[in-house]
Design goal:
The chain is about 70% helix and about 0% strand. By secondary structure, the protein is an all-alpha fold. It has a two-stranded antiparallel sheet. The chain has 17 helices and two strands.
C-alpha cells in the first residue's frame, strides 16, 4: 500500500479564485482594459449576426426588420460566381498555408545562424519594415512593377517571358503567385519573430555537445532546434489554418480587375461586390457571408488543433 501511495502522482492543490486574486490583483487590474476592449469591440457586435437572418434595414433596426431565415445564405451560395470564389479562396489559402508558412521559419533559421549581432539586428529590423507599409502602397508598387512597361516585367521579358501586364493575366496560378510573393515580402520578417524568439531559448550547451560529437550545422538544426521549437510551430500553424479561410481582402481588392475575377475573386471580395457593388447596400448578405466564414474558420481551428494534438502531442488548447 505504501508503494502504491508513493507511485501516485502528486497533484498540487487548486487555489481558490479569492486567494489567487489577492496574490495577483495587479495583473487582474491590468487585464481590465483588455477585457473592456474585447467585450465592447468583439462580443457586443456579435449581436449583429441577426442581420444574416433578416432583410435588414437601417431605419427599422434589428427588431423591426423582416425575418427571412436562410434566404440570405441561399442567395450567397446560389450565385453563379460563388463556386469560383470558393475555389480561389481554398487555393490561395493552401498556397499561403504551405509556402507562405514555411518561408518565415526558414528565415528565422537563417537569422539564427548569423553570429555577428549588429548585422543580425540590422537584417531583422529591415525585414520588419515592410509590415508597416500600407496595403495601398504595396499594391501600388506591385501594379507599377508588373505593368507592361514595369521593371519586373522588363526583366522577365529578357528572361524569355511574354511582355504583358502580369496583373491582367487570367491564367492559373499567375495571380496566386503574385499575391503569395507580395504577402511573403511584406510579412516574412514580422512572421519570423515568434520563431526567432523560440530558437533563442534552445540551450547552447546541447548544440555544443552535438558539435563535439561531430554533428554538422544542418544536423543540429534538424535534430535539435526544430524539435525544440515544434510546439511554437504547431501553435502558429493552428492559428494560420483557423484564419486561412479569411484570405486577404484589402490586397486582393486593390490588385484584381474584372478580367481576373475568375482567378482572383475570393469569398470576401465576392461578397463585397454582391453586397456593396451595386446601387443598394445589402447588409444582410454581408452578415451571412461573415457568419459562414466564421463558422468555417472555427471548424478549421478546432479540427487542426485536434489533429496536431493527436499527431504531435502539442496543441494550442
Amino acid at each position: 500500500m505504501a508503494a502504491k501511495n508513493v507511485t501516485k502522482k502528486y497533484k498540487a492543490p487548486k487555489l481558490s479564485w479569492k486567494i489567487d486574486f489577492k496574490r495577483n490583483w495587479v495583473i487582474y487590474v491590468m487585464f481590465v482594459p483588455i477585457l473592456i476592449y474585447e467585450v465592447v469591440l468583439h462580443y457586443i457586435p456579435m449581436f449583429g449576426v441577426l442581420m444574416a437572418f433578416e432583410d435588414y434595414n437601417v431605419i427599422d433596426g434589428y427588431f423591426g426588420s423582416k425575418w427571412v431565415g436562410f434566404q440570405n445564405f441561399i442567395e450567397l451560395f446560389s450565385g453563379a460566381e460563388f463556386p469560383i470564389a470558393l475555389r480561389n479562396t481554398i487555393c490561395i489559402a493552401l498556397i499561403k498555408g504551405t509556402i507562405g508558412f514555411v518561408i518565415p521559419i526558414i528565415f528565422a533559421f537563417l537569422l539564427s545562424m548569423l553570429h555577428h549581432k549588429k548585422y543580425k539586428r540590422t537584417v531583422q529590423t529591415f525585414s520588419y519594415l515592410p509590415n508597416f507599409v500600407a496595403a495601398v502602397v504595396v499594391a501600388s508598387l506591385i501594379t507599377q512593377f508588373l505593368a507592361k512597361d514595369g521593371p519586373l516585367t522588363m526583366l522577365l521579358s529578357h528572361l524569355g517571358f511574354a511582355n504583358q501586364n502580369w496583373l491582367a493575366n487570367d491564367n492559373i496560378p499567375v495571380f496566386w503567385i503574385i499575391y503569395l510573393f507580395m504577402g511573403v515580402w511584406q510579412s516574412v520578417g514580422w512572421g519570423s519573430i515568434m520563431y526567432v524568439a523560440a530558437i533563442a531559448t534552445v540551450s547552447e550547451d546541447i548544440h555544443e555537445a552535438a558539435a563535439i560529437d561531430g554533428a554538422s550545422r544542418l544536423q543540429r538544426m534538424t535534430k535539435i532546434t526544430l524539435p525544440c521549437i515544434m510546439p511554437t510551430i504547431v501553435m502558429m500553424l493552428v492559428l494560420n489554418i483557423g484564419l486561412s479561410f479569411s484570405t486577404g481582402f484589402d490586397s486582393i481588392l486593390l490588385l484584381y480587375m474584372p478580367s481576373t475575377y475568375n482567378v482572383a475573386d475570393t469569398v470576401y471580395t465576392y461578397t463585397y461586390r454582391m453586397a456593396f457593388g451595386g446601387g443598394a447596400t445589402n447588409y444582410s448578405l454581408s452578415a451571412a457571408s461573415g457568419l459562414f466564414q466564421s463558422v468555417v474558420g472555427t471548424i478549421l481551428l478546432i479540427g487542426s488543433n485536434y489533429l496536431s494534438k493527436k499527431a504531435t502531442d502539442s496543441s494550442l488548447f
